[in-house]
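Per reviewer request, we include the raw input and output of the structure prediction for the construct analysed in the revised manuscript.
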Amino acid sequence: MSEVSIYADGSCLPSNPGPGGWASILVSGDYQKELTGCAYGKTTNQRMDLTAVIEGLAALKKPCLVTVYTESQYVQRGMTEWMEGWQKAGRIQNGNLTNSDLWIRLLEASGPHEVTWVWVSDKAKNELNTKVDLLAHAAARRARDEATHGTN
């Protein structure tokens, strides 16, 4: 299996909720790919963080050993601590959980892979964590500016 690192982040501007952006950087050996996107309506940082990871995983064409690096404890703890309880209680399947739609997509996207979830403290950022943060903020600014000027 190929080894892939995914650095993922989301952002909302000017407030949460508001227009948002997400970014993922996929790294495998010397290969690196950047993915970004926007949400023009009212979204949240949590939704953008989840979307960043989903899109990163969805870009993988075959099962991989994946390490996801995220500043979002919501995403990291959701997948490592809370998911089993949510599934047992049926909270995701019956929509009785905030962002159920995205948690379902994240489970589907992560399914083919062996995923390790790593929370990165804002103070412990490395070069790629900083870069993905900047890309997510730039995407959120695009969404904000396009929403403000009616060009979406």
